[in-house]
Amino acid sequence: MHKASTQDVQPPVHATRPSKYLDVWDLPDDQVIELPLNSMHQPVDERERAFIGFLGTIAPKPHMCPIRYLNWKDMPEELKKECWRVVERKYAVPTNPTAYVALKTFTL
User: Fold this and answer.
1) Is 4 within a domain?
2) Rounded to whole angstroms, what are the CA distances from 94 to 22, 25, 41, 82?
3) Which of 12, 53, 67, 108 sits in a 20 to 30 Å window from 90, CA-based?
4) 82 vs 16, which has greater pLDDT?
Protein backbone atom coordinates (compact mmCIF):
# COMPACT_ATOMS: atom_id res chain seq x y z
CA MET A 1 0.00 0.00 0.00
CA HIS A 2 1.41 3.39 -1.04
CA LYS A 3 0.80 6.35 1.18
CA ALA A 4 0.58 9.67 -0.59
CA SER A 5 2.74 12.42 0.74
CA THR A 6 2.98 16.09 -0.03
CA GLN A 7 6.34 15.40 -1.64
CA ASP A 8 4.59 13.41 -4.38
CA VAL A 9 2.40 16.35 -5.40
CA GLN A 10 3.91 19.24 -7.28
CA PRO A 11 2.11 22.57 -7.10
CA PRO A 12 0.82 23.85 -10.44
CA VAL A 13 2.97 26.40 -12.22
CA HIS A 14 1.12 29.57 -13.16
CA ALA A 15 2.34 32.14 -15.60
CA THR A 16 2.40 35.57 -14.01
CA ARG A 17 3.40 39.04 -15.06
CA PRO A 18 6.79 39.77 -13.58
CA SER A 19 6.17 43.32 -12.39
CA LYS A 20 2.60 44.32 -13.17
CA TYR A 21 4.27 47.66 -13.88
CA LEU A 22 4.46 48.55 -10.20
CA ASP A 23 7.55 50.62 -11.00
CA VAL A 24 5.34 52.90 -13.11
CA TRP A 25 2.41 52.95 -10.67
CA ASP A 26 4.77 53.73 -7.77
CA LEU A 27 6.64 56.48 -9.61
CA PRO A 28 6.93 59.61 -7.44
CA ASP A 29 4.67 62.50 -8.48
CA ASP A 30 7.64 64.67 -9.45
CA GLN A 31 8.98 62.12 -11.96
CA VAL A 32 7.73 61.08 -15.39
CA ILE A 33 8.95 58.53 -17.90
CA GLU A 34 10.27 59.83 -21.21
CA LEU A 35 8.46 58.25 -24.12
CA PRO A 36 10.28 58.53 -27.45
CA LEU A 37 7.92 58.98 -30.38
CA ASN A 38 8.34 58.35 -34.10
CA SER A 39 7.37 60.82 -36.85
CA MET A 40 3.73 59.73 -36.50
CA HIS A 41 3.87 60.52 -32.76
CA GLN A 42 3.63 56.87 -31.72
CA PRO A 43 5.83 55.34 -29.01
CA VAL A 44 8.96 53.53 -30.19
CA ASP A 45 11.85 51.39 -28.88
CA GLU A 46 11.70 49.19 -25.79
CA ARG A 47 9.65 51.78 -23.90
CA GLU A 48 6.77 51.29 -26.32
CA ARG A 49 6.26 47.77 -25.04
CA ALA A 50 6.38 48.93 -21.43
CA PHE A 51 3.96 51.77 -22.22
CA ILE A 52 1.45 49.43 -23.84
CA GLY A 53 1.88 46.97 -20.98
CA PHE A 54 1.18 49.75 -18.49
CA LEU A 55 -1.97 50.68 -20.41
CA GLY A 56 -3.00 47.07 -20.02
CA THR A 57 -2.90 47.50 -16.24
CA ILE A 58 -5.34 50.41 -16.42
CA ALA A 59 -8.01 48.49 -18.32
CA PRO A 60 -8.86 45.96 -15.57
CA LYS A 61 -9.38 48.65 -12.92
CA PRO A 62 -13.15 48.69 -12.37
CA HIS A 63 -13.24 52.33 -11.26
CA MET A 64 -11.54 53.40 -14.49
CA CYS A 65 -12.82 50.93 -17.09
CA PRO A 66 -15.98 49.25 -15.78
CA ILE A 67 -16.73 45.95 -17.44
CA ARG A 68 -20.34 46.93 -18.08
CA TYR A 69 -19.14 48.88 -21.14
CA LEU A 70 -18.45 46.21 -23.71
CA ASN A 71 -17.46 48.72 -26.37
CA TRP A 72 -14.89 51.48 -25.87
CA LYS A 73 -17.16 53.85 -27.83
CA ASP A 74 -19.83 53.39 -25.14
CA MET A 75 -17.42 54.32 -22.35
CA PRO A 76 -18.30 57.71 -20.80
CA GLU A 77 -15.89 60.49 -21.73
CA GLU A 78 -15.14 61.23 -18.07
CA LEU A 79 -13.74 57.71 -17.59
CA LYS A 80 -11.63 58.05 -20.73
CA LYS A 81 -10.34 61.39 -19.43
CA GLU A 82 -9.38 59.77 -16.13
CA CYS A 83 -7.40 57.08 -17.97
CA TRP A 84 -5.59 59.79 -19.94
CA ARG A 85 -4.86 61.75 -16.73
CA VAL A 86 -3.11 58.69 -15.32
CA VAL A 87 -0.95 58.50 -18.45
CA GLU A 88 -0.13 62.21 -18.19
CA ARG A 89 0.96 61.76 -14.56
CA LYS A 90 3.28 58.87 -15.39
CA TYR A 91 4.65 59.75 -18.84
CA ALA A 92 6.10 62.87 -20.42
CA VAL A 93 3.51 63.73 -23.05
CA PRO A 94 4.44 66.10 -25.89
CA THR A 95 3.63 69.79 -25.64
CA ASN A 96 3.25 70.11 -29.41
CA PRO A 97 -0.56 70.13 -29.96
CA THR A 98 -0.41 67.82 -32.98
CA ALA A 99 1.83 65.30 -31.21
CA TYR A 100 -0.29 65.55 -28.05
CA VAL A 101 -3.52 64.73 -29.89
CA ALA A 102 -1.86 61.93 -31.88
CA LEU A 103 -0.46 60.27 -28.74
CA LYS A 104 -3.76 60.67 -26.90
CA THR A 105 -5.61 59.09 -29.82
CA PHE A 106 -3.09 56.24 -30.00
CA THR A 107 -3.38 55.69 -26.25
CA LEU A 108 -7.13 55.78 -25.93
Assistant:
1) no
2) 24, 20, 9, 18
3) 67
4) 82
CB atoms closer than 10 angstroms to residue 78: 7
pLDDT digits (tens, 9 = 90+) for 29-65: 999 999 999 999 999 998 899 999 999 999 889 999 9
Q: Residue 51 belongs to what domain range?
A: 22-107
CA R_g for the chain: 20
Sequence-distant (≥ 6) Cβ neighbours of residue 42 within 8 angstroms: 48, 102, 103, 106
d(CA 57, CA 55): 5
Into how many domains does the chain fold?
1
